Amino acid sequence: MKKTLLAIALAATAVAAQAKDIVDTAVAAGSFKTLATALQAAGLIETLKGKGPFTVFAPTDEAFAKIPKADLDALLKDKAKLTAVLTYHVVPGKVMAKDVKAGKVKTVQGGELTVATTGGVTVDNAKVVKTDIVADNGVIHVIDSVVLPK
What we know:
The chain has helices spanning 2-18, 22-29, 33-42, 45-48, 61-65, 69-77, 79-87; strands spanning 54-59, 90-92, 103-106, 112-116, 122-123, 126-135, 138-143. It is α+β, with helices and mostly antiparallel strands. The protein has a single domain (20-143), classed as FAS1 domain (Roll), CATH 2.30.180.
C-alpha cells in the first residue's frame, strides 16, 4: 500500500512538472518569439501565467513581421498601447474550436473581436491557422495576422 501511494505521488509530481501555462506553451512552440517579447514588454507574462482560463488568439512571428519594423518597434516601446493590443487577442474562458460561433466576442481589453466561420475561421481579418493548443490555464488558437483594437 505504501509503495502504491508513493508511486501515485511520484506520478502526480511528474505530471505537474510537465504542466504548462499559456506562456510556457507558446514559448515551447517556438514560433511566438515576438509575442513572448511583447508580453514581457507589456508586463503581461504573470497575467497569462495566472489561473485563467484564457483563450488566446496568438499571432506567429510571421504575423508580427507583417507590421513595418518602425511601427512594431514603436509599439513595443509604448506599454499602454502594447497592452491594449495584446489583451485584445485574449478572450476570457476556454473556447475550443468546436465551440466557436460567428459573432462578436468580448476581449480582455474591453473591445470586441468579430469572429466569422465562413470558409474557415477568422478573427477580425486574421485567419485562424491552427486550433486547440491546450495549456493548463486555457487554449491557444494561432492566427496569421496581428489584430488591432478599433
